[in-house]
Design brief:
By secondary structure, the chain is mostly helical. It contains 14 helices and 2 strands. A two-stranded antiparallel sheet has the order 1-2. Helix 4 packs antiparallel against helix 11.
């Protein structure tokens, strides 16, 4: 009960305990020693000893569990440290050729010939010379110079012509392969039917085949069409490659069908669904495919060697394999220039590449 003054303010209150806690109001009650439940009996000495034994066993179990957990944490930390060290060692081993190429591109011609001349040396008949001693791999040049880059960029237009040959081959392949892949993959993902499934299965079979298997048929078809020694012999097989179609189809199939059905109910046509829903949601996948296709065709060697007999039409990737003893002073500079476009594209699209691989066309919640 509570008392209330004339002004409506509480002046006193009587607090009643819960029935199970009323023993605290008894004279001499000890809060640290609550009474036993009604009907509870005293434990016998044997029961007390058994309870104490069980308590000791539980304590030992908990201590062992804590010790095991601490040991597992130590083992986990050691494993992470060893994995980090191993990953660092492998990273250094993989990066060492790139670092060596970049640093050696600043060497002088005489220093390159002194250190690596024996690697490119040939006999009078044109065969390679046996290397009887260890090649001197130098990470830091004795005297840094830009003579290699000056020779490549200003004194040897042949290298730049091969570089632009590579760009002329690769850029149209990437652009038009993505264009074909976007249209074809939307059709494969949007519509269903037995004929479509058969065609898509054939795409998968062609994608799984190594290029060396289809190289002879490509050569025969190009010869029949009169495309040998023309850029179309490189462009057409690349534009209609099944890789981008297959991968982009998987991206589009991750888009929930409810999204497209809702757009259809709202009056959107197929072109609007394609351009305003499917392609924006697959932006990461499209950029990822563009990066992979660019790197793949930037490094192509077999296609130009087989389909192009004119050396002036060869890309830089083929030309690098033909560096002879008289041009080793420029080999490192040309290799660095050759690495620049893929590295720039990868650095620009790294975030999109990771999102495209992990996201895979779904909708972020």
């Amino acid at each position: 009960m509570r008392g209330r003054s004339a002004g409506g303010v509480y002046t006193s209150a009587i607090v009643e305990r819960a029935p199970e806690n009323r023993w605290l109001d008894m004279p001499g009650a000890d809060p640290s020693n609550p009474p036993r439940e009604v009907g509870a009996r005293e434990l016998t000495p044997e029961e007390q000893r058994a309870a104490e034994k069980q308590q000791k066993a539980d304590n030992r179990f908990y201590k062992r569990a804590i010790h095991r957990a601490a040991r597992n944490r130590r083992i986990g930390k050691i494993g992470i440290a060893l994995g980090t060290i191993a990953a660092g060692i492998f990273a250094i081993l993989f990066l060492m050729p790139i670092i060596l190429t970049i640093t050696n591109s600043f060497m002088s011609t005489s220093e390159i010939n002194a250190n690596y001349g024996m690697v490119f040396a040939t006999t009078e008949s044109g065969s390679k010379v046996f290397i009887s001693k260890t090649v001197n791999l130098k990470l830091i040049p004795d005297m840094a110079t830009f003579a290699q880059y000056a020779s490549v960029l200003f004194k040897s237009p042949e290298y730049l012509m091969k570089f632009w040959n590579s760009m002329i081959y690769v850029v149209p392949i990437v652009v038009f392969q993505l264009f074909v892949a976007m249209l074809a993959s939307f059709g494969f993902a949007r519509y269903h039917g037995r004929v479509k499934e058969v065609i898509f299965f054939l795409y998968i079979i062609l994608m799984l085949m190594p290029y060396q298997v289809t190289l002879v048929p490509n050569y025969l078809v190009s010869q029949w069409l009169g495309l040998i020694d023309t850029r179309w012999a490189i462009w057409l097989p690349g534009i209609f490659s099944p890789f981008a179609v297959y991968l982009l189809t998987k991206f589009i199939r991750r888009i929930p069908t409810e999204v497209m059905e809702a757009a259809s109910i709202d009056g959107a046509g197929e072109w609007q669904i394609f351009s305003q829903i499917a392609m924006p949601l697959c932006k990461g996948g499209i950029i990822s495919i563009a990066i992979l296709v660019f790197i793949d065709y930037w490094n192509m060697v077999e296609q130009p060697l087989i389909l192009l007999t004119n050396d002036e039409m060869h890309p830089l990737s083929v030309f690098l394999s033909k560096i002879n003893a008289g041009e080793i002073s420029l080999a490192f500079a040309v290799a660095v220039i050759y690495m620049v476009p893929p590295m720039l594209i990868f650095l620009y699209g790294e975030e999109y590449l990771i999102d495209g691989i992990t996201y895979q066309g779904g909708i972020k919640g």
